[in-house]
Amino acid sequence: MPIYEYQAKSAEKSCEYCSEVFEQIQKMSDPPLGMCPKCGAQLVKLISAPSVGHSASGLDQRAKAAGFHKLQRLGKGEYEKKY
After folding, report:
1. Is-contact 38 59, C-beta < 8 A?
2. Are residue 33 and residue 58 in the same domain, yes or no?
3. For the segment 31-83, what is each residue's pLDDT rounded down to a tens digit?
4. Of 38, 55, 65, 81, whose CB neighbour count within 10 A is largest?
5. What is the pTM of this model?
6. Which of 45, 46, 38 is nearest to 14 (CA)?
7. Coil, strand, or helix at residue 64?
8. Does residue 57 share a domain with residue 17?
C-alpha cells in the first residue's frame, strides 16, 4: 500500500502531530484524509517523490549477494560475466 504525506492547512489551527508533515498508509482507493485524526484540523495532501528502489550499485550488490549473475554484452552473441 502506498504511503501518503499530509500536513495541516493552517499552522494556527493544528496540533503537534499535524503541524509537521506526517505519513499515512492508505489504499489507493481510499479517499484522502480531510481532517487530522488527533485534533480535527483541516489537512492538505502533499505531493512527494516516490521511492522506487535503491541506486543501481546497491541493487547490483544485493543481486550479487543473493547469488544472481550479471552479464554484459560484448558483441553479437558474446557476453562477459560481470559477477
Report:
1. no
2. no
3. 999 999 999 999 999 987 776 655 666 778 888 888 888 888 988 889 998 88
4. 38
5. 0.58
6. 38
7. helix
8. no
Write b or e for each residue in 34-55: b if 16 or more Cβ atoms lie within 10 A of its Cβ, otherwise e. Answer: eebeeeebebbeeeeeeeeeee
Amino acid at 4: Y
Q: Which three cell numbers stand for residue 80?
A: 562477459
Instruction: Name the residue range of residue 14's domain.
Output: 1-50
List 35's β-bridge partners, or say none: 42
How many other β-carbons are positioned within 10 Å of the β-carbon of residue 7?
17
Q: Which amino acid is at 67?
A: G
32 vs 24: CA distance, rounded Å: 10
Residue 30: how many other CB atoms lie within 10 Å:
12
Q: Please check whether residues 77 and 38 belong to one and the same domain.
A: no
18: helix, strand or coil? helix
Report H helices in 10-55: 16-19
Q: Which residues pair with 67 in a beta bridge?
A: none
